[in-house]
């Protein structure tokens, strides 16, 4: 997903998420939210991950999703879909399911600390697990569809902002069925946009959450920013799209959220499968 060049430019190619390139060692985290992905796509991402994590009620979400595809995870015949790690305060996951998955090889770590979300704690536990297993992760893909709970949405963004402290210099990408969201750190970024998203004028946005962005410039957007200042209560770049361009460049002096719609991309992948 992310590549840092010698010139200080960070290149982003979102198709690597779905290509499941073996060169990109990544982990998958499934939170307690619905899973709306076509099974061929989600299974491919899961099966090629170095580490798979389910978080509290996300464990039931995963078990139920598999059941919808005709797979009974708990019968012991589908070890490739057993999570490597299960974390959370476990207030949304039955002890019976946990014990069954433990017997099938899952490492279960209960994290009762209520000062942090289960998502936040899962990143911290993932870091420790990867270190113990000597796995050098490059990315973490977090499956989390949004909901009407605005506090949950903001809480997830908050976790993105502090992900460096939780898991180190590993990029964390939030994946919903209709969007991708991640943090752009200060510097220059080049984001490759699949042609199908350009052709469909799919939405995208740059959001200065938490602190102002004092100077940000872009190319490749329909409404570009030119040494602009952005802050909540002032200018933000929401409901933007692409200017017939397959590359968006962003230069920013501060951390900023990049978010983009992917509906046409998922539809095209489903039609190919």
From TrEMBL:
GO terms for biological process: thiamine diphosphate biosynthetic process; thiamine metabolic process. Keywords: ATP-binding, Kinase, Nucleotide-binding, Transferase. Residues 187-256 form the Thiamin pyrophosphokinase thiamin-binding domain. GO terms for molecular function: ATP binding; kinase activity; thiamine binding; thiamine diphosphokinase activity. InterPro entries: Thi_PPkinase, Thiamin_PyroPKinase_B1-bd, TPK_B1-bd_sf, TPK_catalytic, TPK_catalytic_sf. CDD domains: TPK (cd07995). This is Thiamin pyrophosphokinase 1. It comes from Dufourea novaeangliae (Sweat bee).
């Amino acid at each position: 997903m992310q590549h840092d060049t010698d010139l200080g430019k960070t290149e982003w190619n979102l198709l690597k998420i779905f290509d499941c390139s073996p060169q990109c060692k990544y982990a998958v985290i499934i939170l307690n939210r619905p899973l709306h992905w076509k099974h061929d796509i989600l299974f491919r991402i899961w099966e090629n991950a170095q580490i798979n994590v389910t978080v509290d009620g996300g464990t039931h979400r995963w078990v139920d999703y598999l059941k919808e595809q005709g797979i009974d995870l708990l019968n012991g015949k589908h070890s490739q879909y057993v999570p490597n790690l299960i974390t959370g305060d476990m207030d949304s996951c039955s002890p019976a399911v946990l014990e069954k998955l433990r017997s099938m090889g899952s490492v279960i770590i209960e994290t009762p600390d209520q000062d942090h979300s289960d998502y936040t704690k899962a990143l911290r536990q993932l870091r420790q697990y990867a270190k113990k297993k000597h796995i050098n992760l490059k990315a973490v893909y977090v499956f989390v569809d949004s909901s009407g709970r605005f506090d949950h949405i903001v809480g997830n963004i908050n976790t993105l902002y502090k992900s460096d402290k939780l898991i180190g210099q590993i990029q964390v990408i939030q994946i919903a069925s209709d969007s991708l969201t991640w943090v752009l750190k200060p510097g220059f970024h080049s984001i490759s946009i699949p042609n199908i998203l350009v052709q469909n004028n799919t939405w995208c946005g740059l959001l200065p959450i938490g602190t102002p962005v004092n100077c940000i410039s872009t190319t490749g957007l329909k409404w570009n920013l030119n040494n602009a200042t952005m802050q909540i209560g002032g200018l933000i770049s929401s409901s933007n799209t692409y200017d017939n361009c397959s590359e968006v460049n962003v230069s920013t002096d501060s951390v900023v959220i990049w978010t983009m719609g992917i509906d046409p991309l998922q539809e095209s992948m489903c039609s190919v499968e």
